[in-house]
Design goal:
By secondary structure, the chain is an alpha+beta fold. Helices cover 24% and strands 28% of the residues. The chain has one domain. It has one helix and five strands.
C-alpha cells in the first residue's frame, strides 16, 4: 500500500510541473516599450536591480518581453 501511495504521489507531482510550465518564444523584431518600474522586485547580492516592466503587442495582444542574454544592457 505504501508503494502505491508513493507512486501516486510521484505521478501527481510530475503532473503539477506541466501545469506551471512557461512557454517562451524567440522573436526577431518587436516594438518593445516600458510600461512601468518593477520597484524592488529583482535583487542581486542584497542590492536592488533597477528594471522596467516591458512588453510588446502582437495582433492586438500584449505580451511581456524580456531578454535572456545577460550580456545585453538596457538602453536609456
Amino acid at each position: 500500500m505504501k508503494k502505491i501511495i508513493l507512486l501516486l504521489a510521484i505521478f501527481i507531482m510530475n503532473g503539477l510541473g506541466f501545469m506551471n510550465a512557461v512557454y517562451a518564444t524567440s522573436i526577431n523584431t518587436a516594438n518593445v516599450y516600458a510600461i512601468g518600474d518593477c520597484g524592488q522586485l529583482l535583487k542581486y547580492k542584497g542590492g536592488v536591480v533597477k528594471v522596467d516592466y516591458v512588453q510588446y503587442t502582437d495582433n492586438g495582444v500584449n505580451y511581456p518581453a524580456y531578454c535572456m542574454d545577460k550580456t545585453k544592457q538596457r538602453s536609456q
